[in-house]
Design brief:
heterodimer, A: alpha/beta, 6-stranded mixed β-sheet, 4-stranded antiparallel β-sheet, 10 strands, globular, B: mainly alpha, 9 helices, elongated
Chain lengths: ~270, ~260
Amino acid sequence: MDVRDAHYSVGGRAIFSGLSLQAIKGQITAVMGPSGTGKTTLLRLITAQIHAQAGQVHVFGENLATLNSRQTFAMRRRMGMLFQNSALLTDMDVFENVAFPLREHTDLPEALIRNLVLTKLNAVGLRGAAQLMPEELSGGMARRVALARAVVMDPELLIYDEPFVGLDPIALGVILRLIQEMNQALGITSIIVSHDVHELASIAQRSYLMAAGTIVAAGSPQELAASDLPIVRQFMSGAPDGPAPFHYPAPDLASQFLPRAASGVVA
Amino acid sequence: MTTAVVNDGFVLRSLTRIGRVTIFLMHMLAQCGRVLARPGLVVNQIYNAGGRSLVIIMLSGLFTGMVLALLGFTLLQRFGSEDALGFAAALALLKELGPVLTALLFAGRAGTALTSEIGLMRATDQLTAMQMMAVDPLRYVAAPRFLGGLIAMPLLTAVYDVVGLFGAHAVGVRMMGVDNGSFWSQMQSSVDFKDVKEGIVKSVVFGFVCSLIAVYEGYHAEPTAEGVGLATTRTVVASSVLTLLLDYMLTAAFI
Protein backbone atom coordinates (compact mmCIF):
# COMPACT_ATOMS: atom_id res chain seq x y z
CA MET A 1 0.00 0.00 0.00
CA ASP A 2 1.45 3.31 -1.03
CA VAL A 3 -0.11 6.75 -0.48
CA ARG A 4 1.65 9.54 -2.38
CA ASP A 5 1.02 13.21 -1.69
CA ALA A 6 -2.71 12.71 -1.12
CA HIS A 7 -4.99 15.71 -0.69
CA TYR A 8 -8.56 15.42 0.51
CA SER A 9 -10.95 18.01 1.88
CA VAL A 10 -14.58 18.09 2.94
CA GLY A 11 -16.60 21.29 2.76
CA GLY A 12 -13.46 23.39 2.28
CA ARG A 13 -11.75 21.88 5.36
CA ALA A 14 -8.56 20.04 4.46
CA ILE A 15 -8.39 16.55 5.96
CA PHE A 16 -5.19 15.56 4.14
CA SER A 17 -2.73 17.98 2.64
CA GLY A 18 0.17 16.12 1.09
CA LEU A 19 -0.16 12.83 2.98
CA SER A 20 2.40 10.16 2.08
CA LEU A 21 2.95 6.78 3.70
CA GLN A 22 3.71 3.19 2.79
CA ALA A 23 2.90 -0.19 4.29
CA ILE A 24 5.52 -2.82 3.56
CA LYS A 25 4.44 -6.32 2.60
CA GLY A 26 4.38 -8.76 5.52
CA GLN A 27 4.86 -6.06 8.14
CA ILE A 28 2.60 -4.48 10.76
CA THR A 29 2.32 -0.75 10.09
CA ALA A 30 0.79 1.51 12.70
CA VAL A 31 -0.82 4.86 11.95
CA MET A 32 -1.24 6.94 15.07
CA GLY A 33 -2.49 10.41 15.75
CA PRO A 34 -4.74 12.46 17.99
CA SER A 35 -8.51 12.15 17.59
CA GLY A 36 -9.88 14.04 14.63
CA THR A 37 -6.73 13.92 12.51
CA GLY A 38 -8.39 11.81 9.81
CA LYS A 39 -7.17 8.30 10.70
CA THR A 40 -10.49 6.66 9.83
CA THR A 41 -10.71 8.81 6.69
CA LEU A 42 -7.31 7.41 5.72
CA LEU A 43 -8.75 3.90 5.95
CA ARG A 44 -11.66 4.94 3.73
CA LEU A 45 -9.09 6.29 1.29
CA ILE A 46 -7.04 3.10 1.08
CA THR A 47 -10.15 0.92 0.79
CA ALA A 48 -11.47 3.05 -2.11
CA GLN A 49 -14.58 4.18 -0.25
CA ILE A 50 -13.45 7.72 -1.07
CA HIS A 51 -10.84 8.97 -3.54
CA ALA A 52 -8.05 11.48 -3.08
CA GLN A 53 -8.73 14.81 -4.80
CA ALA A 54 -5.03 15.05 -5.63
CA GLY A 55 -2.13 12.63 -5.31
CA GLN A 56 -2.27 8.86 -5.71
CA VAL A 57 -3.19 5.83 -3.63
CA HIS A 58 -1.81 2.47 -4.75
CA VAL A 59 -2.92 -0.84 -3.23
CA PHE A 60 -1.54 -4.14 -4.55
CA GLY A 61 0.22 -2.01 -7.17
CA GLU A 62 -3.07 -0.66 -8.55
CA ASN A 63 -3.92 3.04 -8.62
CA LEU A 64 -7.30 3.11 -6.86
CA ALA A 65 -8.49 6.14 -8.83
CA THR A 66 -8.34 4.13 -12.07
CA LEU A 67 -10.38 1.15 -10.85
CA ASN A 68 -14.00 0.72 -11.87
CA SER A 69 -16.57 -0.66 -9.48
CA ARG A 70 -15.98 -4.33 -10.48
CA GLN A 71 -12.21 -3.94 -10.13
CA THR A 72 -12.67 -2.22 -6.77
CA PHE A 73 -14.70 -5.15 -5.48
CA ALA A 74 -12.07 -7.57 -6.85
CA MET A 75 -9.37 -5.60 -5.00
CA ARG A 76 -11.38 -5.68 -1.76
CA ARG A 77 -11.59 -9.47 -1.94
CA ARG A 78 -7.86 -9.47 -1.28
CA MET A 79 -8.19 -7.41 1.90
CA GLY A 80 -9.98 -7.75 5.21
CA MET A 81 -11.07 -5.02 7.56
CA LEU A 82 -11.78 -5.02 11.28
CA PHE A 83 -14.19 -2.24 12.19
CA GLN A 84 -14.04 -0.28 15.42
CA ASN A 85 -17.61 -1.33 16.26
CA SER A 86 -17.14 -4.82 14.76
CA ALA A 87 -20.03 -4.22 12.27
CA LEU A 88 -21.35 -7.78 12.58
CA LEU A 89 -24.52 -8.43 10.58
CA THR A 90 -27.19 -8.40 13.26
CA ASP A 91 -29.65 -10.74 11.53
CA MET A 92 -27.16 -13.63 11.46
CA ASP A 93 -25.54 -15.70 14.19
CA VAL A 94 -21.77 -15.81 14.71
CA PHE A 95 -21.29 -18.81 12.39
CA GLU A 96 -23.22 -17.21 9.53
CA ASN A 97 -21.38 -13.90 10.00
CA VAL A 98 -18.04 -15.62 9.50
CA ALA A 99 -19.42 -17.79 6.69
CA PHE A 100 -20.91 -14.75 4.89
CA PRO A 101 -17.92 -13.90 2.62
CA LEU A 102 -17.43 -17.58 1.75
CA ARG A 103 -21.07 -18.01 0.78
CA GLU A 104 -20.99 -14.83 -1.31
CA HIS A 105 -17.75 -15.42 -3.15
CA THR A 106 -17.24 -19.18 -3.38
CA ASP A 107 -19.17 -22.30 -4.34
CA LEU A 108 -17.56 -24.39 -1.63
CA PRO A 109 -19.55 -27.36 -0.32
CA GLU A 110 -21.33 -26.81 2.99
CA ALA A 111 -19.06 -29.26 4.82
CA LEU A 112 -15.95 -27.33 3.78
CA ILE A 113 -17.52 -23.97 4.71
CA ARG A 114 -18.36 -25.43 8.12
CA ASN A 115 -14.76 -26.60 8.63
CA LEU A 116 -13.27 -23.29 7.51
CA VAL A 117 -15.58 -21.23 9.71
CA LEU A 118 -15.04 -23.39 12.77
CA THR A 119 -11.27 -23.29 12.18
CA LYS A 120 -11.28 -19.48 12.10
CA LEU A 121 -13.57 -19.29 15.13
CA ASN A 122 -11.29 -21.72 16.95
CA ALA A 123 -8.32 -19.46 16.17
CA VAL A 124 -10.04 -16.58 17.97
CA GLY A 125 -11.25 -18.85 20.78
CA LEU A 126 -14.95 -18.65 19.93
CA ARG A 127 -15.74 -22.01 18.34
CA GLY A 128 -18.20 -22.59 21.17
CA ALA A 129 -20.01 -19.32 20.46
CA ALA A 130 -20.87 -20.20 16.86
CA GLN A 131 -24.62 -20.25 17.49
CA LEU A 132 -24.80 -16.99 19.47
CA MET A 133 -26.34 -13.88 17.97
CA PRO A 134 -24.26 -10.66 17.81
CA GLU A 135 -26.30 -8.99 20.57
CA GLU A 136 -25.34 -11.82 22.94
CA LEU A 137 -21.61 -11.08 22.59
CA SER A 138 -19.45 -8.78 24.70
CA GLY A 139 -17.48 -6.04 22.92
CA GLY A 140 -14.28 -8.11 23.01
CA MET A 141 -16.02 -11.24 21.71
CA ALA A 142 -17.67 -9.27 18.89
CA ARG A 143 -14.25 -7.88 17.92
CA ARG A 144 -12.83 -11.42 17.79
CA VAL A 145 -15.74 -12.67 15.65
CA ALA A 146 -15.18 -9.70 13.31
CA LEU A 147 -11.50 -10.66 13.15
CA ALA A 148 -12.41 -14.26 12.24
CA ARG A 149 -14.71 -12.90 9.51
CA ALA A 150 -11.99 -10.54 8.24
CA VAL A 151 -9.49 -13.41 7.76
CA VAL A 152 -11.85 -16.15 6.57
CA MET A 153 -11.03 -15.38 2.90
CA ASP A 154 -7.27 -15.44 3.70
CA PRO A 155 -6.64 -11.79 2.78
CA GLU A 156 -3.22 -10.44 1.82
CA LEU A 157 -3.87 -7.13 3.60
CA LEU A 158 -5.67 -6.72 6.90
CA ILE A 159 -6.80 -3.30 8.08
CA TYR A 160 -7.68 -2.59 11.69
CA ASP A 161 -9.67 0.49 12.69
CA GLU A 162 -9.09 1.28 16.38
CA PRO A 163 -8.95 -2.40 17.39
CA PHE A 164 -8.16 -1.68 21.07
CA VAL A 165 -10.92 0.79 21.90
CA GLY A 166 -13.20 -0.18 24.77
CA LEU A 167 -11.52 -3.50 25.57
CA ASP A 168 -10.73 -4.75 29.07
CA PRO A 169 -7.08 -5.76 29.69
CA ILE A 170 -7.76 -9.45 29.04
CA ALA A 171 -9.60 -8.84 25.75
CA LEU A 172 -6.91 -6.30 24.79
CA GLY A 173 -4.17 -8.88 25.36
CA VAL A 174 -6.09 -11.47 23.32
CA ILE A 175 -6.58 -9.08 20.38
CA LEU A 176 -2.91 -8.02 20.47
CA ARG A 177 -1.81 -11.67 20.41
CA LEU A 178 -4.20 -12.48 17.57
CA ILE A 179 -2.99 -9.55 15.44
CA GLN A 180 0.59 -10.69 15.94
CA GLU A 181 -0.28 -14.30 15.14
CA MET A 182 -2.15 -13.33 11.96
CA ASN A 183 0.89 -11.40 10.83
CA GLN A 184 3.53 -13.97 11.77
CA ALA A 185 1.72 -17.24 11.00
CA LEU A 186 -0.11 -16.17 7.85
CA GLY A 187 2.23 -13.43 6.65
CA ILE A 188 -0.66 -10.97 6.36
CA THR A 189 0.34 -7.35 5.81
CA SER A 190 -1.37 -5.33 8.53
CA ILE A 191 -2.27 -1.66 8.86
CA ILE A 192 -3.46 -0.61 12.30
CA VAL A 193 -5.02 2.77 12.87
CA SER A 194 -5.13 3.62 16.55
CA HIS A 195 -4.08 6.10 19.19
CA ASP A 196 -3.02 3.48 21.71
CA VAL A 197 0.70 4.19 21.74
CA HIS A 198 1.88 1.46 24.09
CA GLU A 199 -0.11 -1.36 22.50
CA LEU A 200 1.11 -0.40 19.04
CA ALA A 201 4.71 -0.11 20.21
CA SER A 202 4.65 -3.76 21.23
CA ILE A 203 3.61 -5.15 17.82
CA ALA A 204 4.26 -2.62 15.02
CA GLN A 205 7.41 -2.74 12.93
CA ARG A 206 6.85 0.74 11.53
CA SER A 207 4.77 3.63 12.84
CA TYR A 208 3.50 6.86 11.37
CA LEU A 209 2.24 9.82 13.37
CA MET A 210 -0.44 11.92 11.69
CA ALA A 211 -1.26 15.51 12.58
CA ALA A 212 -2.75 18.44 10.69
CA GLY A 213 -3.48 16.36 7.62
CA THR A 214 -0.03 15.01 7.03
CA ILE A 215 2.59 12.62 8.42
CA VAL A 216 4.74 14.47 10.97
CA ALA A 217 6.94 11.56 12.01
CA ALA A 218 7.74 8.03 10.87
CA GLY A 219 9.95 5.24 12.12
CA SER A 220 10.01 2.35 14.53
CA PRO A 221 8.06 2.85 17.76
CA GLN A 222 11.40 3.26 19.55
CA GLU A 223 12.49 5.99 17.12
CA LEU A 224 9.21 7.83 17.64
CA ALA A 225 9.62 7.56 21.41
CA ALA A 226 13.08 9.15 21.13
CA SER A 227 11.93 11.96 18.82
CA ASP A 228 12.54 15.60 19.77
CA LEU A 229 9.63 16.94 17.74
CA PRO A 230 7.18 18.69 20.12
CA ILE A 231 4.07 17.13 18.56
CA VAL A 232 5.61 13.63 18.79
CA ARG A 233 6.73 14.20 22.38
CA GLN A 234 3.28 15.48 23.33
CA PHE A 235 1.53 12.52 21.71
CA MET A 236 3.88 9.83 23.03
CA SER A 237 3.83 11.23 26.57
CA GLY A 238 0.11 12.04 26.55
CA ALA A 239 0.62 15.67 27.60
CA PRO A 240 -2.75 17.51 27.57
CA ASP A 241 -1.50 20.69 25.92
CA GLY A 242 1.14 21.47 23.33
CA PRO A 243 1.21 21.73 19.54
CA ALA A 244 -2.08 19.78 19.61
CA PRO A 245 -4.10 22.21 21.75
CA PHE A 246 -6.33 20.99 24.59
CA HIS A 247 -8.86 23.75 23.92
CA TYR A 248 -10.90 23.97 20.75
CA PRO A 249 -10.54 27.52 19.34
CA ALA A 250 -12.83 29.79 21.38
CA PRO A 251 -13.32 33.49 22.25
CA ASP A 252 -11.30 34.69 25.26
CA LEU A 253 -12.58 33.76 28.70
CA ALA A 254 -13.43 37.30 29.84
CA SER A 255 -15.73 38.01 26.91
CA GLN A 256 -17.78 34.88 27.63
CA PHE A 257 -17.80 34.72 31.44
CA LEU A 258 -17.71 38.47 32.20
CA PRO A 259 -19.60 40.11 29.35
CA ARG A 260 -20.41 43.23 31.41
CA ALA A 261 -16.77 43.76 32.41
CA ALA A 262 -15.61 43.18 28.86
CA SER A 263 -18.00 45.82 27.57
CA GLY A 264 -16.67 48.35 30.13
CA VAL A 265 -19.67 48.30 32.52
CA VAL A 266 -18.51 48.50 36.17
CA ALA A 267 -20.73 47.27 38.97
CA MET B 1 -38.52 38.01 -6.14
CA THR B 2 -38.23 36.12 -2.85
CA THR B 3 -41.10 33.84 -3.83
CA ALA B 4 -39.44 33.12 -7.14
CA VAL B 5 -36.16 32.19 -5.41
CA VAL B 6 -37.98 29.99 -2.91
CA ASN B 7 -39.92 28.34 -5.71
CA ASP B 8 -36.75 27.87 -7.74
CA GLY B 9 -35.07 26.30 -4.72
CA PHE B 10 -38.00 24.00 -4.14
CA VAL B 11 -38.20 22.99 -7.79
CA LEU B 12 -34.45 22.43 -7.97
CA ARG B 13 -34.44 20.36 -4.77
CA SER B 14 -37.39 18.31 -5.97
CA LEU B 15 -35.81 17.63 -9.36
CA THR B 16 -32.50 16.72 -7.71
CA ARG B 17 -34.29 14.32 -5.41
CA ILE B 18 -36.23 12.71 -8.24
CA GLY B 19 -32.97 12.33 -10.16
CA ARG B 20 -31.25 10.69 -7.19
CA VAL B 21 -34.12 8.28 -6.61
CA THR B 22 -34.14 7.38 -10.31
CA ILE B 23 -30.40 6.68 -10.36
CA PHE B 24 -30.76 4.60 -7.18
CA LEU B 25 -33.62 2.68 -8.81
CA MET B 26 -31.58 2.01 -11.95
CA HIS B 27 -28.65 0.68 -9.90
CA MET B 28 -31.01 -1.47 -7.86
CA LEU B 29 -32.85 -2.83 -10.91
CA ALA B 30 -29.48 -3.76 -12.42
CA GLN B 31 -28.99 -6.08 -9.42
CA CYS B 32 -32.48 -7.60 -9.51
CA GLY B 33 -31.58 -10.32 -12.02
CA ARG B 34 -28.85 -11.69 -9.77
CA VAL B 35 -31.11 -11.39 -6.74
CA LEU B 36 -33.87 -13.41 -8.42
CA ALA B 37 -31.31 -16.16 -8.98
CA ARG B 38 -31.28 -16.51 -5.19
CA PRO B 39 -34.99 -16.66 -4.41
CA GLY B 40 -34.36 -17.34 -0.73
CA LEU B 41 -33.34 -13.71 -0.21
CA VAL B 42 -36.58 -12.43 -1.78
CA VAL B 43 -38.82 -14.98 -0.06
CA ASN B 44 -37.43 -13.86 3.31
CA GLN B 45 -38.33 -10.28 2.49
CA ILE B 46 -41.81 -11.20 1.22
CA TYR B 47 -42.32 -12.77 4.62
CA ASN B 48 -40.91 -9.72 6.43
CA ALA B 49 -42.94 -7.18 4.46
CA GLY B 50 -46.02 -9.27 3.77
CA GLY B 51 -46.30 -12.10 6.28
CA ARG B 52 -45.65 -9.88 9.25
CA SER B 53 -48.23 -7.35 8.03
CA LEU B 54 -50.99 -9.93 7.64
CA VAL B 55 -52.66 -9.43 11.01
CA ILE B 56 -52.96 -5.64 10.69
CA ILE B 57 -54.11 -5.98 7.07
CA MET B 58 -56.77 -8.57 7.92
CA LEU B 59 -58.08 -6.62 10.90
CA SER B 60 -58.23 -3.38 8.91
CA GLY B 61 -59.88 -5.13 5.97
CA LEU B 62 -62.49 -6.69 8.24
CA PHE B 63 -63.44 -3.38 9.86
CA THR B 64 -63.39 -1.51 6.54
CA GLY B 65 -65.80 -4.06 5.06
CA MET B 66 -68.06 -3.83 8.12
CA VAL B 67 -68.19 -0.02 7.99
CA LEU B 68 -68.75 -0.14 4.23
CA ALA B 69 -71.73 -2.46 4.72
CA LEU B 70 -73.24 -0.22 7.41
CA LEU B 71 -72.92 2.92 5.29
CA GLY B 72 -73.86 1.18 2.05
CA PHE B 73 -76.92 -0.43 3.55
CA THR B 74 -78.16 2.89 4.97
CA LEU B 75 -77.66 4.60 1.63
CA LEU B 76 -79.04 1.85 -0.61
CA GLN B 77 -82.05 1.29 1.62
CA ARG B 78 -83.24 4.83 0.79
CA PHE B 79 -83.54 3.78 -2.84
CA GLY B 80 -84.89 0.32 -2.08
CA SER B 81 -81.86 -1.36 -3.61
CA GLU B 82 -80.13 -2.88 -0.59
CA ASP B 83 -79.68 -6.10 -2.58
CA ALA B 84 -76.90 -4.30 -4.45
CA LEU B 85 -74.84 -4.09 -1.24
CA GLY B 86 -72.49 -6.93 -2.31
CA PHE B 87 -71.81 -5.21 -5.62
CA ALA B 88 -71.23 -1.81 -3.99
CA ALA B 89 -68.89 -3.22 -1.32
CA ALA B 90 -66.94 -5.27 -3.87
CA LEU B 91 -66.51 -2.33 -6.20
CA ALA B 92 -65.37 0.02 -3.42
CA LEU B 93 -62.93 -2.53 -2.01
CA LEU B 94 -61.48 -3.82 -5.28
CA LYS B 95 -61.04 -0.48 -7.03
CA GLU B 96 -60.25 1.97 -4.23
CA LEU B 97 -60.21 1.04 -0.58
CA GLY B 98 -58.30 -2.22 -0.93
CA PRO B 99 -55.26 -0.93 -2.82
CA VAL B 100 -55.16 2.51 -1.13
CA LEU B 101 -55.64 1.45 2.48
CA THR B 102 -53.31 -1.53 2.06
CA ALA B 103 -50.65 0.82 0.69
CA LEU B 104 -51.13 3.27 3.59
CA LEU B 105 -50.94 0.44 6.12
CA PHE B 106 -47.94 -1.04 4.29
CA ALA B 107 -46.15 2.32 4.46
CA GLY B 108 -46.82 2.57 8.19
CA ARG B 109 -45.90 -1.02 9.08
CA ALA B 110 -43.55 -2.58 6.55
CA GLY B 111 -42.21 0.69 5.04
CA THR B 112 -41.05 2.09 8.36
CA ALA B 113 -39.57 -1.27 9.33
CA LEU B 114 -37.61 -1.40 6.07
CA THR B 115 -36.32 2.16 6.41
CA SER B 116 -35.28 1.85 10.03
CA GLU B 117 -33.67 -1.56 9.46
CA ILE B 118 -31.56 -0.37 6.53
CA GLY B 119 -30.85 2.97 8.26
CA LEU B 120 -29.58 1.18 11.35
CA MET B 121 -27.45 -1.10 9.18
CA ARG B 122 -25.93 2.07 7.73
CA ALA B 123 -25.45 3.64 11.19
CA THR B 124 -23.72 0.52 12.56
CA ASP B 125 -21.38 0.18 9.55
CA GLN B 126 -22.99 -3.07 8.40
CA LEU B 127 -23.41 -1.75 4.85
CA THR B 128 -19.80 -0.53 4.79
CA ALA B 129 -18.67 -3.92 6.14
CA MET B 130 -20.47 -5.60 3.22
CA GLN B 131 -18.75 -3.29 0.76
CA MET B 132 -15.44 -4.16 2.38
CA MET B 133 -16.25 -7.84 1.94
CA ALA B 134 -16.77 -7.07 -1.77
CA VAL B 135 -20.53 -7.61 -1.44
CA ASP B 136 -22.69 -4.87 -2.96
CA PRO B 137 -25.32 -3.84 -0.36
CA LEU B 138 -27.60 -2.81 -3.21
CA ARG B 139 -27.69 -6.46 -4.29
CA TYR B 140 -27.75 -8.07 -0.86
CA VAL B 141 -29.83 -5.57 1.16
CA ALA B 142 -31.74 -3.11 -1.04
CA ALA B 143 -32.87 -5.14 -4.07
CA PRO B 144 -34.33 -8.13 -2.13
CA ARG B 145 -36.30 -5.79 0.14
CA PHE B 146 -37.56 -3.79 -2.80
CA LEU B 147 -38.67 -6.94 -4.65
CA GLY B 148 -40.15 -8.38 -1.45
CA GLY B 149 -42.31 -5.29 -0.96
CA LEU B 150 -43.26 -5.16 -4.63
CA ILE B 151 -44.48 -8.78 -4.57
CA ALA B 152 -46.08 -8.56 -1.11
CA MET B 153 -48.28 -5.55 -1.83
CA PRO B 154 -50.66 -7.14 -4.40
CA LEU B 155 -50.90 -10.25 -2.21
CA LEU B 156 -51.75 -8.14 0.85
CA THR B 157 -54.29 -6.19 -1.21
CA ALA B 158 -55.97 -9.44 -2.27
CA VAL B 159 -56.15 -10.56 1.37
CA TYR B 160 -57.52 -7.15 2.37
CA ASP B 161 -60.22 -7.32 -0.31
CA VAL B 162 -61.31 -10.85 0.58
CA VAL B 163 -61.46 -10.22 4.33
CA GLY B 164 -63.20 -6.89 3.67
CA LEU B 165 -65.90 -8.68 1.64
CA PHE B 166 -66.44 -11.16 4.45
CA GLY B 167 -66.75 -8.21 6.86
CA ALA B 168 -69.33 -6.59 4.58
CA HIS B 169 -71.16 -9.90 4.31
CA ALA B 170 -71.19 -10.38 8.08
CA VAL B 171 -72.75 -6.97 8.69
CA GLY B 172 -74.93 -6.72 5.57
CA VAL B 173 -76.35 -10.25 5.52
CA ARG B 174 -76.26 -11.38 9.14
CA MET B 175 -76.95 -8.08 10.91
CA MET B 176 -78.92 -5.99 8.41
CA GLY B 177 -80.84 -8.84 6.80
CA VAL B 178 -79.75 -8.45 3.17
CA ASP B 179 -80.49 -11.63 1.22
CA ASN B 180 -77.44 -13.89 1.08
CA GLY B 181 -78.06 -15.00 -2.50
CA SER B 182 -78.57 -11.44 -3.75
CA PHE B 183 -75.40 -10.28 -1.96
CA TRP B 184 -73.16 -12.73 -3.83
CA SER B 185 -75.08 -12.92 -7.15
CA GLN B 186 -75.20 -9.12 -7.58
CA MET B 187 -71.47 -9.04 -6.95
CA GLN B 188 -70.81 -11.88 -9.39
CA SER B 189 -72.92 -10.42 -12.20
CA SER B 190 -71.88 -6.77 -11.88
CA VAL B 191 -68.15 -6.76 -11.08
CA ASP B 192 -66.09 -6.88 -14.30
CA PHE B 193 -62.57 -8.14 -14.71
CA LYS B 194 -61.72 -4.53 -15.58
CA ASP B 195 -62.54 -3.58 -11.97
CA VAL B 196 -60.31 -6.34 -10.64
CA LYS B 197 -57.57 -5.31 -13.05
CA GLU B 198 -57.72 -1.71 -11.83
CA GLY B 199 -57.15 -2.90 -8.27
CA ILE B 200 -54.24 -5.12 -9.32
CA VAL B 201 -52.57 -2.34 -11.32
CA LYS B 202 -52.97 0.08 -8.43
CA SER B 203 -51.57 -2.36 -5.89
CA VAL B 204 -48.51 -3.08 -8.08
CA VAL B 205 -47.88 0.65 -8.63
CA PHE B 206 -48.30 1.41 -4.91
CA GLY B 207 -46.05 -1.55 -4.02
CA PHE B 208 -43.39 -0.24 -6.39
CA VAL B 209 -43.54 3.31 -5.02
CA CYS B 210 -43.82 2.48 -1.31
CA SER B 211 -41.03 -0.13 -1.43
CA LEU B 212 -38.75 2.16 -3.44
CA ILE B 213 -39.25 5.06 -1.03
CA ALA B 214 -38.72 2.88 2.05
CA VAL B 215 -35.52 1.33 0.71
CA TYR B 216 -34.16 4.63 -0.67
CA GLU B 217 -34.77 6.54 2.56
CA GLY B 218 -33.18 3.80 4.68
CA TYR B 219 -30.17 3.51 2.38
CA HIS B 220 -29.56 7.26 2.45
CA ALA B 221 -30.43 7.90 6.10
CA GLU B 222 -27.97 9.96 8.12
CA PRO B 223 -26.09 7.42 10.28
CA THR B 224 -27.45 8.82 13.55
CA ALA B 225 -30.48 8.09 15.74
CA GLU B 226 -32.08 11.33 14.62
CA GLY B 227 -31.24 10.64 10.98
CA VAL B 228 -32.90 7.22 11.04
CA GLY B 229 -35.96 8.74 12.76
CA LEU B 230 -36.24 11.47 10.14
CA ALA B 231 -35.83 8.98 7.30
CA THR B 232 -38.62 6.84 8.77
CA THR B 233 -40.89 9.87 8.97
CA ARG B 234 -40.09 10.81 5.37
CA THR B 235 -40.97 7.28 4.28
CA VAL B 236 -44.46 7.46 5.80
CA VAL B 237 -45.18 10.99 4.58
CA ALA B 238 -43.87 10.52 1.03
CA SER B 239 -45.45 7.07 0.61
CA SER B 240 -48.85 8.24 1.86
CA VAL B 241 -48.97 11.41 -0.23
CA LEU B 242 -47.74 9.67 -3.37
CA THR B 243 -50.19 6.81 -2.88
CA LEU B 244 -53.14 9.23 -2.75
CA LEU B 245 -51.83 11.29 -5.66
CA LEU B 246 -51.21 8.23 -7.83
CA ASP B 247 -54.59 6.82 -6.85
CA TYR B 248 -56.28 9.89 -8.27
CA MET B 249 -54.23 9.69 -11.47
CA LEU B 250 -54.84 5.96 -11.95
CA THR B 251 -58.56 6.26 -11.21
CA ALA B 252 -58.80 9.02 -13.79
CA ALA B 253 -56.87 6.88 -16.28
CA PHE B 254 -59.19 3.89 -15.81
CA ILE B 255 -62.40 5.87 -16.29
